[in-house]
Every structure is written in C-alpha cells, then in structure tokens.
Amino acid sequence: MANLNRWLYRGGRPNRIAQWVNRVWAAVASTGITPNFMETLEVIGRRSGKIVSLPVVVAIVDGERYLVSMLGDDVQWVHNVRAAGGKAALRSAGVEQIRLDDVPAERRAPILKEYLRRAPGGRPHVPVDKDAPLAEFESIAAAFPVFRIVALSAPTDVSGRAPALFVVLTFLLSIPLWIVGAETGWQIIGGLPVSALAAFCPAVVAALLVYRRGGTAGVGALLERTFDFERIRNPIWYAPIVLLMPAAMLMTWLVTRVLGASVAPQSVTLPFVAMSFAAFFVAAAGEELGWSGYATEPMQARWGVLRASLLLGVIWSVWHLIPLLQMHRTLEWIAWWTLQTVALRVLIVWFYNRTGRSVFAAVLIHGITNICTVTFANYYDPRVFGIALALLAVMVTVSWPVRPLNVATNR
C-alpha cells in the first residue's frame, strides 16, 4: 500500500490516476457517507478561477480542527488556499464557509501526530511513525503545512446529515420486510401487506445516523419532533393541514360521479376512523421523522425547495413500489399513484417550511392522506386524486414559493 501511494504521488505530485481517485473521493466525502472526519475541501483555483474539490482528513486537537498537507508545501491546494487568503469551504452533506489560517511550525507536532492517526493514506509521505514521540514530529514539522479551520458561517446542515446514506440504508433495512411480504402474503390493516411495516424504517435509520453524530441527546431531539406543534405559530395552518386531503377525496368522488363511474357505497363508523387515525399517525411518524425530520433540510439546502421536493417524491415512490406490487396493483394504477405521491411530497415539504419546519405538520398531512385513501377506498381513484394533488402542488409552489430556512439560525 505504501509503494502504491508513493507511485500515485511520485515527486510529491498526484499523477492522473491519483487525480481521478481524488475527484471520486471528493464526491463521496461531500455526501456525508464517509466518517465524520473525512470531508471535501473546496477552494478557488488561483489560475482557473473555478472551484477545485479534494478529499481531506480533518484532525481535531484540543477542540480545534486542522488540515494537513501530507505532500508538503509545494502542493496545488496549498497554493490555492494561500492565494485565496485562506478562504475556502468544507462540504459533508452540508456546506460550511471557512478560513484556513497557517499554523506556525512550532505548534504543528501534536496536530501532525493526530493527523497520521486518522489518515493512513498520509503515513507513506511523512517520514515519522504515527506512534513516534512528539520530538520526532517537531523535527519534520516545518516541511508539512498545517492550517487551522476557522468557521465563517455555520454549516448549511448543522447536524452534518447524510441524506444519500439515509436513503440507501432505508432501502436496505426495508428489504427483509419486502421478502417476508413476498414469501408469506401476510396482511395488516386495510389489506396492506406486512411489508408496509417498512414505514418505520426511515425513523430507525434517521435515529441511527443522528446517534452517530449527536448521541442519545440527538436521537431524543429527533423523536421529540413528532409533536413539535409549537413550531406552528399561527393556528390557521391547521385548517388546510387537516382539511386538504378530505377535500381532495371529496372532489375525487364528485368527479367520478360526474364521469358516470359506478361507485359502491361504503359505510364508515366513527370508531373505525378513530382507530385508523391512531394507526396511520404512528406509521406516518415512522416515515416523516426520516423523510421530513432528517432528509428534507440538507437536500433543500443543496438543491433548493422544489428540486429537493421532487427528488424526495421520486425516491419515496420507488420505495413504495414493492408493497404496491404485493397488493397486486396494476402498472397503470401505480403510475397515477406515483404522480399523486410526488405531488404529495411537494405539498408536505411546502407545509413543512411554511409551518416553521414542523414534522408534526408533515405527519398530520401524511396520516390524513392515508386515512382518506384507505378508509374510503371505494371512492378513491388515483387518476383523479393524483391530478388534483399535482395541480394543487403547482399552484402553491408557483403562487407562494418558499426558500429553505436558514438552518444555522433556526435550530
């Protein structure tokens, strides 16, 4: 490995293969999937004027963060940082604007030692063993620039969330339930296959990822957002949150009647609706703690509200595909349902932002939608319901667009 590393960086400069590897690792590190000490450094190229990205390992000593140049002083990113007056950015799911200050050689030894402990790839380039005493690091410190990271702004995602990793793990955790549903044919409420229990996977994955960086306190804060109704400052928001989906269902019934479709009457009792609400609220919380409470903010901070909403909606729809097939839905039915689901996610994100990032609001909308489509299944037509929600989503995003909240100041 040491010989390979030296070959990739012959003469202290990366060859073309090393440059390609660096670009790949920079892209991976920027997603937040990698350990929390691996990030992507972005700095303006002094000649090209374009942003240059490279993966870096952050060393932490006495609560301060540092970057180390394992190839010494004559390295492009070091020259670029100094030409930019130290101005740069760190990306790991979110983006943090920083300034990099040169650390004097006499203070570098403990930082170099910590850097080698965290960065095995840097060891072949530093002529000191990682376990050597500080005196040996002091003897070579002048040859390896060290920069202290000074935050100029809080990261766009203060929790360092990794939405890409969240999505991957949610799908992976759902696979066993999908398999059980396919093998057993078991069903739960309303004819839903047992694979629908994957509704709790987003919350489980979000809790695991939050614990990775914030410990039990972070998990507790995430779970508390299930009932963060205090964020809904104006009670008037409860009217559209509660009534929107019943109104869409009523419109669906009216349209099907006008078109002459025969709809079998359906009797619904109040106790059944109450039980359904309790069940669907819990299931919706299992989903929205992940989709809204964890993934929405970093995604819309990076791509904007609308693009993040659409992307989340597509991912959300694909994640539901296996349970829908196990319910023997036709491809045409699934296509119209997908339009409905993407539009619903756009609306959920819109309400989420408008209500002060309230996960409780998202859970209510989600849960009430499920109650309407399952409890009144005889009146539900995904074609009409999907078109209605799509038109509504277009109307609110065009007429009352929202920007992602500054999560650095709205924690």
What does this structure look like?
The protein has 14 helices and 7 strands. The chain is α+β, with helices and mostly antiparallel strands and 411 residues long. It has 2 domains: 2-151, Electron Transport, Fmn-binding Protein, Chain A (Pnp Oxidase, Chain A), CATH 2.30.110; 163-399, no CATH class. It has a 7-stranded antiparallel sheet, with helices on both faces. Strand 1 and strand 2 (51-57) form a beta hairpin.
SSE topology sketch:
Layout (H helix, E strand, L loop, with lengths): L1 H7 L7 H15 L7 E7 L6 E7 L1 E3 L2 E5 L7 H8 L3 E6 L1 E9 L6 H10 L15 H7 L5 E6 L11 H22 L16 H24 L13 H21 L11 H34 L1 H15 L1 H6 L4 H24 L4 H17 L6 H18 L12
Antiparallel strand pairs: 1-2, 1-5, 3-4, 4-7, 5-6, 6-7
Supply database-style keywords:
disordered C terminus; 14 helices; alpha+beta; 411 residues; Pnp Oxidase, Chain A; 10% strand; 2 domains; 7-stranded antiparallel beta sheet
Gist of the model:
The chain is α+β, with helices and mostly antiparallel strands. The protein contains 14 helices and 7 strands.
